[in-house]
Amino acid sequence: MRIMQLYRASKRGASKAASNGAYEPKPRRFAMTDLHAKQTRNIETARRFFELMHRKDIDSWGELWAENGRIIVFYPPAGFGDSIDGKAAIVAAFKGLFGNFESFESELTAIYPAADSESVVVEYRNRAVIVGGTEYTNSNIAVFRYCGVSFR
User: What is the pLDDT confidence band of residue 78, given thresholds at 50, 70 and 90?
Assistant: First the structure.
């Protein structure tokens, strides 16, 4: 039993006290891991994604996408495909889409970084005014998967 306790202490990072030879745990320091740093960066990128859409700055928004980026559309409207594949196609589709909006706003209602990957899940509500004055609203969830600093 004593050996097991010493082993556990040494695994946590123990130091040998000079006075009596007993092992005492070292204070734990919580440093930001590489995964946490990437998650933080990716959350900020997701926020920027929505800010650029709000500004209707589709060219800058397009720079967030990897060349092989993909949007999967789970409930596409009639005549709309179930995915948009490739950065060029995504940017072209959103330039066309945003050409129909007088204004576009998104409210991020929740952001969930994945526990064991660089992915980020975002819940959001959209409010857009379509050219001519009709208001469009919806609530969505999106999963952002990253390839370096770009979306895939």
Answer: confident
